[in-house]
Write a structure and sequence with these properties.
The protein is an alpha+beta fold and 367 residues long. It is 40% helix and 17% strand. Helix 5 crosses helix 7 and helix 5 packs parallel to helix 8.
Amino acid sequence: MTAARLHRQVRSRAVLAALTPWLALMLATARSPAAEPTTDACQETWSKERQRPTLVTNLPNRGISGHVAWLTIEVEHGVGEQVLPGGIELAADAPEVRLLRAAEFALPEPTSPVKATLERKDAGTRAKTTIRLPLIPLPKQAGRHQLALPPLPIAVARASGEVQTLCTTQADITVEDPLAGTPAAEPAKDPDARQQRELWTAARDLAIALLIALPTALALALLFLRFRGSWKKAPPPVPPRPAWEVALSRLEALEQEGLLHRHEYELFLDGVVDTLREYLGSRYGFDGLECTTREILRQLEQRAPDFSSILDVRGLLQRTDLVKFARRLPTEEECREAIDQVRRIVRTTTPGPSLDPRTASPQGART
């Protein structure tokens, strides 16, 4: 071996030793798949022992970026099977939503009037369920794009209650920009500036305070007017008229009725004696109208030992008893004599003026 050949071998081995780490990295990269399947990818779990439902996927060939493209999935299955038993609504973190987002598709907002639909029709032993899903293609870059809708999982509940998964087929759609068909499209002009209106917090707080204060003040005013009279001190009660004044006033009113002119002597005498009974009871503290003649005389003896007109009272009461029980009619002269006699009894038993306040009350006073 010559020296030149030996030198070439040494150089080749040195270059190979330097390139060995890079070659190993390139081989490892070539062996690793470009895109590992994610856990969100659709995985069909339908058992081979049973007849698999038929799925037909329909997506428009062309669409506009940001506009709804309706995906129609028709599932032909047995009558005892139910497609999407959990409903057609998808949560924001559902695997299907992540699949669509990765493929540059989106779903309308939950508050949008555009809703997915699920319709089932039975025909004998077979049934057909149609799913209409609104998809919004949203490519990340402007221009025309070819988007691929990945297989989506479709849950089917069997008659036994077991839930299995079917996968749709991949569908392609060509997406254009909204202005792709407009020649020499120009950007839309910005809208005119609007006047900015600031919230006047002071006026707002004042309006709220007035709305609260006015009804409160009105209610307080109504309460004041309603109970104003009850806050005033009630005036002292009017003292009752003395018994002798009441008796003299009734005797005078009895005379002015004209009973004697109409010859109603019995009625006139009853009024005179009743006035006497009431006066004696009020004057000496007992119920004179409810007492008999004997009870009135006994009360006078107990309550007014110095009563000087006891004989006149006995005579008047007995005369009235004869008229009432013996049916003896009185004469006009007896009636006039009776009223004069009662006046005299009242005047003689009227107490005189006194400076002692303890004897100022005439009710029940004793002579």
